[in-house]
Amino acid sequence: MPDDRKPAFASNITADDVAAEAGVSRWTVNRAFRKDASISPKSLEKVRIVAERLGYVPDLRAASLASDRSNLVALLIDDFANPHKLVMMERLTRILRREGWDILLVNTLDRNDAGHALLNASQRRVDAVILIGIQFDDEVLDTALHARRFRKLIIFARTSRNPNTISIAVDDVHAMREIANYVHERGYRRPLFLAGPRTSSAHLLRKETFVDYWRQHFGSEPETISVAAYDPDLAAGVVETALVNRNKTTLPDILVCENDALAIGATDFIRHKLGLRIPQDIAITGFDDVPQAEGANYRLTTYRQPLTEMTEYLVKVLSNEEERDFDRLFQGRLVIRESA
Amino acid sequence: MPDDRKPAFASNITADDVAAEAGVSRWTVNRAFRKDASISPKSLEKVRIVAERLGYVPDLRAASLASDRSNLVALLIDDFANPHKLVMMERLTRILRREGWDILLVNTLDRNDAGHALLNASQRRVDAVILIGIQFDDEVLDTALHARRFRKLIIFARTSRNPNTISIAVDDVHAMREIANYVHERGYRRPLFLAGPRTSSAHLLRKETFVDYWRQHFGSEPETISVAAYDPDLAAGVVETALVNRNKTTLPDILVCENDALAIGATDFIRHKLGLRIPQDIAITGFDDVPQAEGANYRLTTYRQPLTEMTEYLVKVLSNEEERDFDRLFQGRLVIRESA
DNA sequence: GCAAGTTTTGCTCACGGGAGCAATAGGCAT
DNA sequence: ATGCCTATTGCTCCCGTGAGCAAAACTTGC
Fold first, then answer.
1. Which of A57, A196, B189, B327 has the maximum number of C-beta atoms within 10 A of its C-beta?
2. What is the 3-state secondary structure (H, E, C) of B159-225?
3. A219 in the Ramachandran plot: left (φ > 0), alpha (ψ -120 to 50) or beta?
């Protein structure tokens, strides 16, 4: 067998090579690969064929450099413990790629690292930065906006009060009212709200909404506890210190969790350490509708965010150059299963 | 409040601007940002200060274009249902960034899409492509190697027989022997092996190893069934058709699963649909040691891959320009919990 | 067949930085 | 001060493409 089975390392084939071979100019070759370029069908086909044969593909680095548009967005994530992130990444990568956007994935380790992460994005001259994480508080956002040049800073699946960012999220108030209403109507009367970290002002809204609802309808403050991170194991620990040594009458009848990650940790603890049944002894609700929530084990009553819709809107925001983009809230829907 | 709170959209500040301000040449400015450049400490500091003030950061597109090294690697993933992917991504993004590599995340929808995904990577002129998925069979790899120009094609966490790729994986044979041996020694005698899709020859090794072990020690073929994808729900379905209508004596005493995703689906089904206990009625083992495997709910006996070590080796492979890189197998370790 | 209008094509001039070499400055012994 | 060696600095020439305009080619109506 001859050598041609070896990988073609193709010492950079450039538009010039294709042009020479196809008998046209370099610019015609490039036009053959640009969406909105004016080129005759004849030369288009001629160029495409030669390019295919030679294995030519345009160099997006150069294109980006010359056109000042990279078609690249940075995706900053800092919370890999939450399975919902995997769902969001799947949706984002799939839809963005379909629309011609490439994704630079940046792991933002912690709050102090946000600056470095943004620097990374900045050096690649991304067209936008998408944040899907929890540590991005207002202070971080401010430094980001001041220090680096980003055309767009998009907070995905989280609300932000910062006027210079674009936030695409579910309507937490509406959602949590729906949950609270469901809890109320189903007859639960001793709820315990399991909240996430208190550092970020972002998700506070869910807790506040629930507390408000309860106060309004019963005149009393529901019990709330808070976990230092959206981590099932930490949630279990917090639930433990809150529930241990209580007797049946003082035990909550439902755990309203800020998201599924917490709900899952709480479920595991209640079942396997306390030996209680769900929902008979304690009911549970979550938020996000992660894949496991549907599984036979959890059957979690939760709230589904319309991720596809949200991502489609994100795409619009990305392509929209002229007008100012606006924050937008989406309506999800309550998914009722057996856990509550 | 004055206007200076508005984000600095910084009409491209370039090395020339910094040079003028700092009283040096453009090249000296660039040298201040290159690791191995020769520059006096005095001008380095001068440039750094001015750059900081002006908000200048070098443009990696231009640098990449001129130097023919992008410091960018593409990460192709096609299986977002498996939580292990999230762990792998966390490890890869963290360590690669620390070593100066940026990551282009590409969602490879299915086998037919692999070509397009690779094209994407090719257009950004990545220095390497890392595959962490299951659909990348030998045929796909071959076309990838022939059609596009990739310096390195790395198969991560999966073995590959293709001589033109670099595979970094755990030693499946060693690992599965260890599992089989454990199953054997704990006295299980009616194992059922739950395998993944049969299309890819890659993970076949685990099943073959287990079957060989059993044949060798008992002279009989263990029962095996196969799931069309590494998806907990599908696993539940397959287990259902395999176990339904069996009585206690013909039921397997242990389910040996090709990975944790399958094990989790099987566990849920066995517990909640069959109403059996784990491990008393049926024991279960997995592979990967995903975060949930440790939780109170599953307590899954499984096999942990040394992901950090593997990623460190990956980094070495990436930086190694000269010599030919070699495939490498790593030893993980059996993690024994209560599920078997 | 010809003028006017419409495509299509080629060209100049960037985009922002790296390689590699030539020029300059600084350090040291004599 | 001189000569020699070395650490810095500046410069030329790319890297591979896009924007926008001018030249060329093709249409159309008469």
1. A196
2. CCCCCCCEEEEECHHHHHHHHHHHHHHCCCCCEEEEECCCCCCCCHHHHHHHHHHHHHHHCCCCEEE
3. left
Instruction: Name every chain B residue with its beta carbon within 8 A of the beta carbon of A236.
Output: 295-296
Least confident of A80-89, A291-300, B153-162: B153-162
Q: Is residue A237 part of a domain?
A: yes
Q: What is the mean pLDDT of residues B312-337?
A: 87
Q: Using the 3D structure, point to which of A15, A35, A58 is the last residue of a domain.
A: A58
Same domain, A228 and A298: yes
**Residue at A294 is within a domain:** yes
Confidence of residue B129 (pLDDT cuts 50, 70, 90): very high
> Which CATH number does the domain housing residue B244 bear?
3.40.50.2300
B143 — pLDDT class (breaks 50, 70, 90): confident
In a domain, B65, yes or no: no
If asked whether residues A282 and A317 sit together in one domain, one would say no
Cβ contacts of A93 on chain B, cutoff 8 Å: 77, 105-107
Q: CATH number, domain at B24?
A: 1.10.260.40
Domain stops at, among A16, A35, A58: A58
- The C-alpha atoms of residue B122 and residue B148 are separated, in whole angstroms, by 7
Q: Which domain holds residue B203?
A: 172-304
Considering the domain architecture, whether residues A202 and A96 belong to the same structural domain is answered as: no
| A259 & A320 share domain | no
- Cα separation of B300 and B284, whole Å? 7
For residues B119 and B177, membership in a common domain is answered with no
Q: What percent of chain A has pLDDT over 70?
A: 92
pLDDT per position as a tens digit, B209-255: 999 999 999 999 999 999 998 889 999 999 999 988 887 788 999 99
CA–C1' nearest nucleotide, residue B40:
D8
Contacts A148 to B, Cβ<8 Å? 55, 57
- Please list, residue by residue across B56-82, b when 16 or more beta carbons sit within 10 angstroms of its beta carbon and e when fewer do: bbbbbbbbbbeeeebbbbbbbbbbbbb
Pair (A90, A150) in one structural domain: yes
Residue appearing with tokens 């937490």:
A172
Residue B189 has what pLDDT? 94
For residues B31 and B63, the answer to whether their CB atoms sit within 8 Å is no
Nucleotide nearest to A26 (CA to C1'): C10
pLDDT digits (tens, 9 = 90+) for A24-78: 999 999 999 998 888 888 889 999 999 999 989 999 999 999 998 999 999 999 8
Q: Are residues B177 and B280 in the same domain?
A: yes
What's the total number of domains in chain A?
3
How many cross-chain Cβ pairs, A to B, lie less than 8 Å apart?
Answer: 175
- Provide, in whole angstroms, the distance separating residue A96's CA from nucleotide D29's C1': 48
A105 found inside a domain: yes
Q: Is the pLDDT of residue A85 over 60?
A: yes
| pLDDT for residue A321 is more than 90 | no
Chain mean pLDDT for chain B: 88
**Separation of alpha carbons A208 and B128, rounded Å:** 48
Q: Please classify residue A237 by burial: count the beta carbons closer than 10 Å to its beta carbon, then call 0-12 exposed, 13-18 middle and 19+ buried.
A: middle
Taking only the tens place, the pLDDT of each residue in B81-104 is 889 999 999 999 999 999 999 999
Looking at the fold, whether B16 and B52 belong to one and the same domain comes out as yes
**Contact at CB, B6 and A164, closer than 8 angstroms:** yes
pLDDT higher than threshold 80 for residue B148: no
pLDDT-derived band at A315 (thresholds 50, 70, 90) equals very high
Best of A11, A61, A143 to disrupt the B interface by mutation (most B CBs within 10 Å)? Answer: A61
Q: Which residue of A lies nearest to B151 if distances are taken between CA atoms? A: A9
